[in-house]
Fold these 4 entries.
Entry 1:
Amino acid sequence: MSTLIFQISAVWLLSILAGFPLFASMGLAAFAFVLIGDFSASIVPQKMAQAMNSFPIVAAPLFILMGNILGAARITDRIVAFATAVLGWLRGGYAHASILTSMIFAGMVGSAVADAAGSGAIEIRAMRKAGYRPETAASITAAAATIGPIIPPSLPMVIYGVTADVSIGRLFIGGVIPGILMGLSLMVMVAIIARRQGFRKEKFKGFREIGRTFFNGFFALMTPPLILGGMFTGVFTPTEAAAVACLYALFLGFFVYRTLEVKQLWPILIETVETTGLVTVLVMAAGALGWCMSISRVPQTLTPLIVETIRDPLVFLLVCNLILLVVGCFMEALAALLILIPILVPAAHSFGIDPVQFGIIMILNLILGTIHPPIGVVLFVVTRIANVSFETMSKAILPWLVPLLVVLVLITLWPPLTTWLPNHVMGP
């Protein structure tokens, strides 16, 4: 069986080097496994279909749709205005406001790329007008966008929950405290750099301005409480929450703010289908390849080896952090999750590590790869918005990784940061 695994790994690697998309290379590796192993070729499409036969995964396209609706309805503008009124008077206020906007936006879309693309243009433009260097403004926006998949709702958490058979509701709740810590740590970094780079302070516009912007953006700001409140109280499941959020976004766009037109629905649906298609084929291909790994007993073989080699849970987590950080720099986060979950989650379970804590650690590690070269998809987004070179951004982002890595270390060393709130809300 080890020879067979070597052969399909070779097929996988060669197909990637040949320029095939990741999902295609995974599918080819699965077909290579069944053909070389003398299994029926019909098993691969069966396992691919089976991977999608899951009610929780319905949340993925719905959350993608909601993010596209919110972006098309220009609801982000109202959130940015409120965040600026609250924090704009501090030194480096526009940077603080950018981070707060990302934290609020994270409670709506659950995607780092959607966060950066949705609010990035407004935030970067405001910071540049205030005298921030373009690469600094773009770096702050990119770093803050990583909060998106940590504060619920979160597309990576849905994928992790489905693949690892972990409660998505517990994952969502477990991400609240780490997400808030990420925002606060970035604000501390802003306070430090603000004095060094001479960020100016804006005049406090008064509580009336805060009240005015809050009133203008009230219904948009209620999106995160609506989603989280409904899940916490048991009114609807995380999957149903995605459907409710879509309806709420349509209600805001058509009837409350009237910034959405019927003719925009078709482009929104097309964009949603395209993004969903990418996620779906990855999940399906990973499902087939995961079956191949299971049949070949790769997880069952590697887990005892890992446990015998490392023995200490903390050392295991630190090793996982290093592996995931490196993988995140070279592979898209969702694809990396689907590949590594069958290998690492059983080992984490053997060490007695809470699956919620381990899931958030995995996701945060891989999301940091979106703001680090060479893949750095969020970096590419903010580079285009800020009109700076990718090389310049690659250097400018490095200091902003430090506070995020500090939060990663904290949730690794102290499990209650990720487990206390789910246990308090949903029970042990």
Entry 2:
Amino acid sequence: MRSMTPVPHRLPALAAVLALVASAHAAPLFAQSAASIDVAEVERLVSTLASDEMRGREAFSEDALRAAEFIAGEFADAGLESFDGAEDYLQRFGVLAYSMAPARVIVDGQPLSPDRYQVRYGVPSIEWSTGDVQVVVAGPDDDPNGVALGVAQAGIDALVLIDPMHEEPYRTISQIYRRPTQHVAGTSAGTQVAVLAPGTPGSTYDIRASADVLERPAVNVVGQIPGRRSDEFVLFSAHYDHLGIQRALQGDSIANGANDNASGVSAVISLAKHFAAQGTPERTLLFVAFTAEEAGGFGSRYFSSRLDPEQIVAMFNIEMIGKPAVSGPNTAWVTGWDRSDFGSILQTAVEGTEYEFYEDPYPQLGLFYRSDNATLAALGVPAHSISTTPIDVDRNYHQVTDHVETLDIEHLTNTIGAIAAGAETIVSGAATPTRVEPLN
């Protein structure tokens, strides 16, 4: 890095002038963006998505498809173009659920009965012979739960040999391993076989296993506004699925998901219409409503696999913005604030206005990797979620009481306007967020 000669008197003055200039431009920009977001239109969108007719928009259901088709219609009204691989804005894919089925497991020449092994599938079938996969041993002095679950979390192909003295903890491991696993169709993930048998890393084995497979259809909704820079994408997203039908509470069994996340989807639709009205942007803009966030983030995982993460300049993932934050009605918090300067760019863009973007007040909850931004963030994209809801005290979160009547529509509308204003410098190419440190 080249050194710079300090200019002790002029730089502060220059900084002050630049700050005043930024503030002078931010206020009218915010006013312009906010004026383009109509409160009645926002209320129509969120009310439709959270209506009883949508029946809670549970992933993989006809109700979710009904919601997706409504969103696609709104994208068409905005004049968006379809994205590559999406027909009429609908990006269809499948999610496979693998369940345990009878298998043949031989370790060190001994065939094992079904109560002595469990298979956690990452592919529909396996045929392993000695030397094909890693052998991990949980001996008498090891923590079998830590070993078995650590291997599963790592997502590798492995045979886990658990000493028979750990029979009691093996029951817990079996319960976890036998749960159906889910993966996006066309992808592969690690398979683990947990065996209650003594062994060493040099043990011999012969394993033949096939899962019972259920494929469930899923669909994202994707539209775009092509920009002058066709290889630089700014992504605005929200998940449209919710929990569907739940246990009845005072006669109400529909988890409408007004705040979670009809509010975020309403924002994405409104932003699409806002930016479409501005003409051709500098950077290409993508607008995505993800499915199956509540079921494991499958919509964002599939969508992310269709893009080069190096070409994604920023991701605005919008989550639950229908209620004012603990710090007030004109504020929104950004997850992973310290992982890039994304949040600072938004705040600079609205400096001098009534609105403020600030750091996630719930770091202990690990929210940065708990939403649809997680897949791209793990790949180094400055992908952040924007929210306003005080989730630590919100009694309607994941409840059938998450109704439109509990939302502050004016706050929701104002927040959408703030996001539009905060995104302007990134959309125009004047600002580019730093990259997030990728996960290994």
Entry 3:
Amino acid sequence: MSREPPITAMDDDRFRRARQVRRIIETPAGPVEIDLAESPLRWLASRRDASGQPFLSPAEIEAGERFRLDFTLAGLSPKLGITWAAPVSGGAAAGAGRDYADIVIAAKQRLDRAREAVGPDFAALLMDVCGFLKGVEAVEHDRGWPQRTGKIVLKLALGALARAYGLDDMARGPVRSRGIRAWRPPAEQAG
């Protein structure tokens, strides 16, 4: 009778890491690793509605994750510890690297436009769920909403956000388009 070795903390850690979806983004403070599995949207994306369809559309998920990325790039995430990096003095010559101030400003501008497009009520909800990663139940409790209404309001907010970003589940061309009739190489120039 063979016995399997006991599961150790190291094995458990490897198991947990293998099931996480990670993306690394560059921020002014350095690279940040985002665990997409910790997003409340991922939980909702795995749910189905009464007809068996996914509760959130791909455009709604993408809009929420884009909002989260801009939130992170804008430096709005709360700091969880002390930054031990030495202050930069002197530095490299101008133009030698990426100007992170531009990245932060652009991310804040995108967030401001998105929040303005969805309105103040949806914007606050999106900040809580997509930015601060609050769970839907916590948002319902904080706002005094009845149970199971938070996910419906969040779906409406994500739909408005997807429209603001110009995202849709189906690609559409111009209304007058007759479609592509043939692919041809560019005409050769007479020379």
Entry 4:
Amino acid sequence: MHRELFKSAIKPILTFSVMVLMTSFSMSQIYKPNWQSLAGHREAPQWFQEAKFGIYFHWGIYSVPAYGSEWYPRNMHIPGDHVNKHHTEKYGLPGEFGYHDFVPLFKAENFDAEEWAELFKKAGARFAGPVAEHHDGFAMWDSEVTPWNVTDKGPERDITGELEKAIKARGMKFITTFHHARNLQRYRGHKEGETNFPNSHYPLFPETPPTDTTNQELNYLYGNFPEEQWLDKIWLGKLKEVINKYRPDIIWFDSWLDRIPESYRQEFCAYYLNEAKKWNKEVVIVRKQNDLPLDISIDDLEKSRKNKIDQKPWMTDETISKGSWCYTENLKIKPAKEVLHTLIDVVSKNGVLLLNISPRADGTIPAGQKQVLFEIGKWLTQYGEAIYKTYPWYTFGEGPTRQPEGHFKHHEEFLKIKYSSDDIRYTTKENTIYAIILGKPEPGKEYTLKAFSKAELPERMNIKKVEVLGTKRKPNWKLKEEGLEFTISQDELDGMVVVIKIKVG
């Protein structure tokens, strides 16, 4: 009976034969720009389900002022905002020193794509890549679509191109993320009392650069175009350009994709999937909110997680800091233990973690962030068998710590979660169950894993072996009606997470 339980609990949702048939179907067809045709795409390839961990980074012009957050280019224009006050005091009024004036200061003089890619590899990432463009209209690749790009201005080098080569050379998949759906200026003039402009990144306040529509070059940065022209030539044009130049394995979208008409979203998906078919690659599209159907895309939850196992693979994007996504002075960095616990919790529920880091404008990654990545990588090197190429068990875990209901709207509550050595998460691989303890137990601590109790399991399991990874001493264990009992020995244990490997047969 335990093998039947495993078939439903630890294997991919589709059987291997069905997966092969779907892969063959998706690789042979030509996708049309409609949801029915696009649904033939396998949204979660096996490589993605098994990768578990990726790294990206908010790095761009907004890294130069290193104040507030990556929303600096918006907030610097809003009277009364602390960013506007800071900008005015340090650089002058936005009409005197605009966001575009930061571009020559973004030199990336210390950027080394090989060094970055090696760091990501050592951190244990299975895919990595840049925020290709944030809301601010500045392209981090060599672009012919817009003059505001890293090859023509600022660093004067193809950042995305260098990273693509270095990342792929190390066997990792390549991700590019896009936040530019918000860049279009959807308003045509400031009205009395209007202060928000919710669907455009740059607010229109008198005597600020976003209001100067006569400067054709600035229009590309501040999004001042007729909507149809912007949608076709800029929003879609940039996506096609990155697809053609860099062949990303994952394209990830931030919010506000619902502002893009459905026909353009469909055209993008068809173009990307048909190009991937030519490359003979299975690619992934990631969305937020409800901006794309889930039979063609992966659901992403920002700074939050699911409360249960989802049958469909999903993703959470989380940042290494407790504040801004981009580098700012005095940015507070999470300890490696906290990031690792998030990764394990996500994986136990059939999720994938996309972790953001925050480089400085000069292209250096701060030592504190590097240290966290090295610690995560060291743990994954030793215990990664419990993470990579695993699948959820029938339950994600047990323990006293509860997380909030809902997603991003409760992200501040997720920050408060602190797991302990009483919290357990489960993953599975072949005939192995991993019980992962989210903390360092006291030596001699006794555990009863209730997930193995007679009341929870349909039938008793034949447990062949129980071991604590990283230690030599075999634990004393016994399978009882109440669950699997074992005692943690006096051996030296990992200070962040302890992995119990349970072999069944």
